[in-house]
Amino acid sequence: MRDLPRPDPGVADHRSAGRLLWWMVLRVRHKLAVSVGLGVLWMCSMALAPALIGIAVDRGVAGRDAGELAGWAGAVLALGVVQAVAGILRHRFGAHNWLDTAYGTVQLTVRQSARVGAALPRRMSSGEVVSIGVSDIEQLGSAIEIVDRAIGAVAAVVVVTAIMLGTSTQLGLVVLIGVPLLLAAVALLLRPLQARQEAYRTRQGKLTTRAADIVTGLRVLRGVGGEHLFAAGYRSESQELRAAGVRVGRVGAVLEATQVLLPGLFLALVVWLGARLVLAGDLTAGQLVAFYGYTAFLVPPLRTLTEAADKIAVALVSARRLVRLLDLEPDPASPAHPVPMPREPAALADPRSGLLVRPGVLTAIAAADPADGAAIAERLARFTDSEARLGDVPLRDFDLNELRFRVLLAENEARLFAGPLRDALGGGPVEDALRTAAAEDIVNALPDRLETEIAARGREFSGGQQQRLRLARALCADPETLILVEPTSAVDAHTEARIASRLGPARTGRTTVVCTTSPLVLTHADRVCYVEDGKVIAEGTHRELLTGEPRYAATVTRQEAS
Predict the structure, then answer these.
(1) What CA–CA distance (Å, rounded) separates 406 from 425?
(2) For strand 535-540 and strand 393-394, is the pairing parallel, antiparallel, or unpaired?
(3) What does the DSSP 8-state code read for residue 256?
(4) Dihedral of CA 492/497/502/507: which sign?
(5) Cα(162)–Cα(181) distance, rounded to whole angstroms?
(6) Which pLDDT belongs to residue 561?
(7) Burial tier of 234 (Cβ tally within 10 Å: 0-12, 13-18, 19+)
(8) Distance CA 274, CA 265 (A)
(9) Which residues are registered as beta bridge partners of 77?
(10) Whole-number Å distance between alpha carbons of 293 and 171
(11) TM spans, by residue (predicted)?
């Protein structure tokens, strides 16, 4: 036995869902070729059995020849042995192909998640990633596993059709025309099934994400009495998922019923026509038995073909989800030949928005749409590639590690790590940073103060407490340029006022950028840039903009009222 999965899954062709499935086929092509050969032998041996039984009836039973009967019965037995051996080996290779594909998909998912790294949560929900690694692997593995059976079914249908045409042109034509019509009738149900399955899997990924969020923040939710609200939201979404599953099951049930009903009607038609030919003397009794056996045999291959169409349709849905993951790119990397960064602080510029951040100044970005402010922050920190510059040099020309050391972006999505709180804050002037972030009361309430062990993601703290600790960690790093995105959105007004008044003095002589529409923070900014539709349309102090720019005043007043 070979160990699974392989050490290296290879480089996937993810230009489209179809290309990805074809790449998966090529990846196991050697074992798949063997299993296809065994599948053809397995199916064709079953297809030949009715012919041998028909001959045994005509020569042994109708002709009353015991020797002929025994000989042809032995031939049927031998064919059965071949069928059994081929079926066992085919199943073994098919299972191997399923496992190789399924767990190769897990490897692709894990490798790509590690490659994208910190950018992954911003671009794809954790529930969707988990869904790919848990449920989609089964669909992709099943699509590869059924290939050998599907090709064997096609070969068997061709063999049976050729035998029937050679025996009776009329019945052979019925089968030759009827089989494609049956497949076409079933195929009509595959498109709505595929659409509903895709909708179901999308909801499933979102619900998984919500469940993970609830479990992660359960202690905090209980502390603020919010578990019932989140539970109600989860209950509502789970009911929507159940309804979507019922819709998928409804179409699937119709498909299953069609796969049984249509071949059954087709079998009845062939037997009726065959009986008429026997009565007319155009067929022997043995040939009628054989024709009945052929038609009855055609039911499993037809179901295999419709099952293959169904599984491939479902696999395309799963492949599209995997393609979306594989298309993600990590945050920009360092250039091959980086340019040295300037020794002295320089201005940061974002040409796309027209923003210029002067060194040593506390600059606030007040955006009518908060997403615009966050996007500018990501460009200034080179979390996304752009034309942003430090001085006269594009950020993309600098070594990324050195840029990260000098320009720090602190987001609300950042996590606190498990371990002693002092280590989680990163060392440095911790006490001063805690005071600036108005977080002294958090530390004073802990049993061992800064040496207290905290859980991953700081689950024992409320949302506002986590935010203040994240701000303290960013201040401890003491970068040349600090970019903060909504650093006070989860704290009360009194705490926010303390942070706003302390932030500027704590960062004297260094560059600070704050993306916010909070009047308490904007009041203490040296310079405010108002952004609308992604562009800076006004600059000045908070008071100047409040009296001279009505759109700014409306944005800030709305924030103050909320």
Answers:
(1) 18
(2) unpaired
(3) H
(4) positive
(5) 18
(6) 43
(7) middle
(8) 14
(9) none
(10) 13
(11) 32-57, 69-89, 146-165, 171-190, 260-279
C-beta separation of 69 from 42 below 8 A: no
Dist CA 182 CA 269 (whole Å): 13
Could you tell me the domains of the chain?
17-326 (1.20.1560.10), 348-561 (3.40.50.300)
Angle at 278 between CA 277 and CA 281, to 5 degrees: 90
DSSP 327: T
| CA 274, 280, 282, 286 torsion-angle sign | positive
Provide the 10 A C-beta neighbour count for residue 413: 9
Structure-block tokens of residue 537: 């349309």
| Tens-place pLDDT, residues 253-276 | 877 777 777 777 877 887 788 778
Task: Please give the Cα distance from 65 to 69 (Å, whole number).
Answer: 6
Three-state SS letters, 464-492: HHHHHHHHHHHHHHCCCEEEEECCCCCCC
Asked if residues 549 and 542 have their Cβ atoms less than 8 Å apart, the reply is no
Assigned token pair, 512: 């600070």
In the structure, how many helices (H) and strands (E) does the chain have? 21, 12
47 or 438: whose pLDDT is higher?
438
21-30, 141-150, 193-202, 429-438 — which is least confidently predicted?
193-202
At 417, give phi and psi (nearest 5°): -90, 155
CA 306 to chain centre: 26
Percent helix / strand / coil, the chain, rounded to 5: 70, 10, 25
DSSP 180-230: HHHHHHHHTTHHHHHHHHHHHHHHHHHHHHHHHHHHHTHHHHHHHT-HHHH
pLDDT for 310 equals: 78
Tens of pLDDT along 121-153?
A: 767 766 677 777 777 888 888 889 899 999 998
CA 444 from chain center: how many Å? Answer: 43
Higher pLDDT among residues 223 and 78, named by residue: 78
* Residue 102 near residue 138, CB atoms below 8 Å: yes
Count the residues in the chain: 562
Instruction: Copy the structure tokens of residue 225.
Output: 């009495």
Q: What is the pLDDT of residue 379?
A: 93
Place of tokens 């499935």: 21
Q: Which residues contact 328 (CB under 8 A, 6 or more apart)?
A: 112, 116, 119, 120, 123, 124
- Report residue 257: phi and psi, to 5°: -65, -40
Q: Residue 304 is encoded by which pair of tokens? A: 């295999």
pLDDT at 4: 57
Mean pLDDT, the chain, rounded, equals 83
Tokens of residue 496, six digits = 């926010």
Q: Which of 176, 190, 199 is nearest to 256 (CA)?
A: 190
Q: 286: which 2 tokens?
A: 């043995």
